[in-house]
């Protein structure tokens, strides 16, 4: 399998402020899902928005790093942080698509679903209006939104759909141009638990059917369990741990990841008091265990200045160490 999207040393800040994303490294292969997890404010969205350069700049400032897209169709390599406007608009929504937490904010309430989809499809695929409607209807059908009696589904307006259905519409729109990568930024956070699962199932099914790569962003580690191949855990703008999802869940190394795994509620475990990050860090045991295992001190915000780097502990497994 080949790497489609690679982020290296990404460092982003706003205005004169300190960097909010620091030295972030990850990559994702075709047909695979990378989960990016971490609490609110840890830099997940800033990282994802940087991929498509969606942050207004200024104030956003890309201070260091590379984001490389290698199109599996044709092999063209694009350095996204340096791409010109023309190249970016070709890739945005066409080769790399993104869906967001709240579908209502990304759908235009005064345009029918069809108008919005057809517009995007025609921008990226050279085709007429009629062909574009066919593509749109097929994409909606693929996410379980059927044609309805007495008129095309394309004539419906966003308010006619429930939250879960709107998120399906967003997925259909994102998938209509057959992107090589889908960035899904907390795609189910605004939905109830049952609908969450359905939407994630639709995403998984679309990924399997098309072989695209997926970057699934979530503040909920439990949610990505069983859905991702790799996981990248972020804390205060940094990657603290990265690795195969099974390995990270079974044997987290960095104290933050260990605390996160301990905090994440599981249905198969009796509900007790949930540990918090502070409880877990309390007596420094985890820091000492990290040091015994890795041979270096774990990076922790505020400890030994702010210097950090990722240390490889086994193939594909990385943890943040101080220094
Ligand atoms: P997450 O998606 O992990 O919840 P974000 O990536 O949205 O977190 O934010 C990371 C940090 O960057 C936060 O501290 C946030 O306040 C800051 N940030 C995000 N967008 C802006 C902006 N436009 N201007 C200034 N700070 C911002
Ligand atoms: Mg976010």
Layout of helices and strands, plus pairs?
Layout: E1 3-14, E2 19-29, E3 33-37, H1 44-51, E4 60-70, E5 77-79, H2 85-91, E6 96-99, H3 103-106, H4 113-124, H5 129-142, H6 163-175, E7 181-185, H7 193-210, E8 213-218, H8 221-224, E9 230-235, E10 238-244, H9 245-250, H10 255-263, H11 277-281, H12 285-294, E11 308-314, E12 317-322
Parallel strand pairs: 3-8, 3-9, 6-7, 7-8
Antiparallel strand pairs: 1-2, 1-4, 4-5, 9-10, 10-12, 11-12
Helix pairs in contact: 4-5, 5-6, 6-7
Bound molecules: adenosine-5'-diphosphate and magnesium ion.
Largest sheet: 8 strands, mixed
Span from first to last CA? Answer: 33 Å
Judged by helices, strands and strand pairing, the structural class is: alpha/beta
As laid out across the biggest beta sheet, the strand order is 6-7-8-3-9-10-12-11
State the total count of DSSP E strands. Answer: 12
Low-confidence stretches: none
Instruction: Give the fraction of residues assigned to helices.
Output: 25-40%
Q: How would you sum up the global shape?
A: globular
Beta-strand share of residues: 25-35%
User: Roughly what is the average pLDDT, rounded to an integer?
Assistant: 89
Q: Could you explain how this protein is built, in words?
A:
The protein is of the alpha/beta class and 323 residues long. Among the domains are: 105-178, no CATH class; 255-322, no CATH class. It is built from twelve helices and twelve strands. The strands form two sheets. The protein has an eight-stranded mixed beta sheet with strand order 6-7-8-3-9-10-12-11, with helices on both faces. Strands 2-1-4-5 form a four-stranded antiparallel beta sheet. Strand 7, helix 7 and strand 8 form a beta-alpha-beta unit. It is globular. The model has no long low-confidence stretch (mean pLDDT 89).
């Amino acid at each position: 399998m080949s790497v489609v999207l690679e982020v290296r040393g990404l460092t982003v800040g706003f205005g004169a402020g300190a960097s909010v994303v620091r030295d972030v490294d990850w990559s994702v292969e075709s047909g695979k899902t990378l989960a990016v997890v971490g609490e609110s404010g840890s830099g997940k969205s800033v990282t994802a928005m940087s991929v498509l350069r969606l942050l207004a700049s200024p104030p956003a400032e890309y201070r260091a790093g590379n984001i490389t897209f290698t199109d599996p169709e044709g092999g063209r390599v694009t350095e996204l942080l340096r791409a010109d406007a023309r190249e970016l608009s070709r890739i945005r929504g066409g080769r790399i698509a993104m869906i967001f937490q709240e579908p209502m904010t990304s759908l235009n309430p005064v345009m029918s679903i069809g108008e919005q989809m057809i517009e995007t499809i025609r921008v990226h695929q050279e085709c007429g209006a009629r062909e574009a409607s066919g593509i749109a209807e097929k994409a909606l059908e693929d996410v379980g939104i059927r044609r309805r009696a007495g008129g095309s589904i394309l004539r419906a307006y966003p308010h006619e759909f429930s939250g879960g259905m709107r998120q399906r519409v967003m997925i259909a729109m994102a998938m209509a141009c057959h992107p090589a990568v889908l960035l899904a930024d907390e795609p189910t956070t605004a939905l109830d638990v049952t609908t969450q699962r359905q939407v994630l199932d639709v995403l998984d099914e679309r990924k399997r059917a098309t072989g695209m790569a997926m970057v699934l962003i979530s503040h909920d580690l439990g949610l990505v369990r069983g859905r991702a191949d790799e996981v990248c855990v972020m804390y205060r703008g940094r990657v603290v741990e990265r690795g195969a999802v099974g390995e990270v869940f079974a044997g987290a190394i960095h104290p933050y990841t260990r605390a996160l795994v301990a905090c994440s509620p599981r249905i198969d475990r009796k509900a007790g008091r949930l540990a918090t990050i502070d409880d877990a860090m309390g007596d420094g045991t985890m820091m000492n265990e990290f040091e015994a295992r890795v041979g270096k001190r774990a990076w922790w915000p505020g400890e030994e200045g702010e210097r950090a780097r990722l240390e490889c502990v086994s193939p594909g497994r990385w943890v943040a160490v101080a220094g």
